Model the fold of this input.
Amino acid sequence: MRGLQVSVIGSGPEHEGRAETVGRLLGERGCVVVTGGRGEVMAAAARGAKAAGGTTIGILPGESRAGANEWLDHVVVTGIGHARNLAVAASGDAVIAVGGSWGTLAEIAFAKLLGRPVVVLEPGWEVEGVARAATPEEAVELALSRVRAGA
Amino acid sequence: MRGLQVSVIGSGPEHEGRAETVGRLLGERGCVVVTGGRGEVMAAAARGAKAAGGTTIGILPGESRAGANEWLDHVVVTGIGHARNLAVAASGDAVIAVGGSWGTLAEIAFAKLLGRPVVVLEPGWEVEGVARAATPEEAVELALSRVRAGA
Amino acid sequence: MRGLQVSVIGSGPEHEGRAETVGRLLGERGCVVVTGGRGEVMAAAARGAKAAGGTTIGILPGESRAGANEWLDHVVVTGIGHARNLAVAASGDAVIAVGGSWGTLAEIAFAKLLGRPVVVLEPGWEVEGVARAATPEEAVELALSRVRAGA
Amino acid sequence: MRGLQVSVIGSGPEHEGRAETVGRLLGERGCVVVTGGRGEVMAAAARGAKAAGGTTIGILPGESRAGANEWLDHVVVTGIGHARNLAVAASGDAVIAVGGSWGTLAEIAFAKLLGRPVVVLEPGWEVEGVARAATPEEAVELALSRVRAGA
Done:
């Protein structure tokens, strides 16, 4: 039976520590961590998941594995540029945002559009109708509880 | 010489009147109006542009013209679902948002990600770093002035 | 009322002359010529259409107008790389292939997948189940007759 | 260290037996089997890989897991329809085609466009420049040898 998939989105080197904790907590809970496959928050979340013995998938924008971080078990090469943000959002049973800029906002919007539970770990994008959490632990628990509630 | 292309994004029947005015103002200024090609705000903006003798392009999410509104001169059928929002944002020299929900937020985010000038016509999504306008006239003037400033 | 849209696909500098004739014939018949917006066959088809007073649309793979040819009335910037080949195929009421390599084959396949009439102008990809024409005139007549038959 | 990923593409219930063998052989060799995630050849290849203890990834066209087969360890939900064929082709270090129709031809074309080794298991699409194999064993060996040669 397939494990729950949780997409961790975001960017910004100052958010890597918390992203790594989010990844570790998800890995400990048996969740597969899905990301956009590149650096900073994406790399940190994957690193954290691997440290906890978890499984990681990166969904890359380019036409090759170039730019993929080293903590990915599986790499999906989409070739569709920023439109891969839709796939990152859609592939999560829940989505957790850690930091991030415009690409992250697009992913939050797509996740809401598709009805995926989304949690923004503070500080981060403030969007009306999107849940927030103060700590990595709270973000993970909130995201997973929403998946369970929706199932 | 190709005319300026301005993408008008959004949704919500209550915003159609202002969207039609935005479309008309753009048509009067010789701009091509680009939209997602469907109903409500998208249809109203195209209708306004056509009333002013302008040209309209709809970028559809599906695999056929199904759901296209009747005020489109040209229809691009993308087949890529919500990922067509990236194309709508990217195809505008500027982007004006009128109302709208999550799909509109994704388009605002993509437009900013790609460096396109974006104006939200109030009321509408409040996003840090995105310009706002109180009236259709102000939205159009602001959007066009930003294109000229960037050119 | 919107004119018929015909996508002209292909590549290869040795095919430009015939692509230009295809574009001209389509323009003379009031068809809008849709292409992938770049050079060689795409540019030649658009050039021919403009010489006949026609309208042209280019559907670009990148995130900006970079690489667009100069004979396009309207440019759709998709940002999705080679996946824009799906949009080029889907946006034609019919598709005519002139020369071309792997990207063209992908477009032929997508056009067939979506039920669009496809004509390969000889020489060109030989694909079982895809119609062929010996001259630009024959390619255009065959493509348009298949659209009418399907309508 | 990430295992080699091989995409198995195709369709047609009459090809399921050979697709399952291809999947099993890939699983035995430690390859991750990537498919479009749905039925027939895609399901059979994944089933074969799981029977051999392998890992499977499905790259789905829709906006949810609807239509996913039951032999997938990980599911990527792209939301981009047939454009996901680009991702299926691009995500393989090599691509093996078993049966298939127009969507498969698009994947073969994209794989060649991106420089991925492609092998068609006979009978199947005959495309100039694409290698062919008479048996599942030969198809797998040829595909893997080409990856090694290219590395």
User: Anything to note?
Assistant: Chain D touches chain C through 19 residues (CB under 8 Å). The longest strand of chain D covers residues 5-11.
